[in-house]
Write the structure tokens for this entry.
Amino acid sequence: MLKFAIQEFKEDREYKNLSPRTIESYLMTLKEFQTYCVKQEIISVEDVTQAVIKSYLLYCHKERDNNPTTRNSKLHSIKIFFNYLEDIEVIASKQNPIKRLAYVKEDIQIEAFNDSHINQMLNYYRRIKQRQRTFTLAGTIRLSLRCWVLACG
């Protein structure tokens, strides 16, 4: 059953000393996937096909309004889960539904800095440099004053 396989997966990840945050991320996705499968009347890992995973990801896109990056993260978690099931021989390699299942294309936009942003950064570094000069000068004056007091005293 899918529910028990997810529990075993969780225990394996804890045994492998993954961070609690990583495990929680896996579980959140896998429990959502399990809920989707139950609604589709799929309760066994052996009944999960590539088509079921694709329809789940389409559901995430259309019904849950997940962006491509989120859907790829969910697919990544599902891939790790099914590879684990293959490793412990719950499913055969030929039966693994994630084989040859590609990630969704992501539109990545890189925004360039404008003149205002560059001026803000330059001003920030100039202020830091000025502070360093002030501290160095103050330290030099204190040292010179101490030496003068010791020499005169």
Q: What stands out?
A: Residues 115-152 form the longest helix (38 residues). The helical segments are 2-15, 20-39, 50-62, 68-87, 115-152. The mean pLDDT is 87.
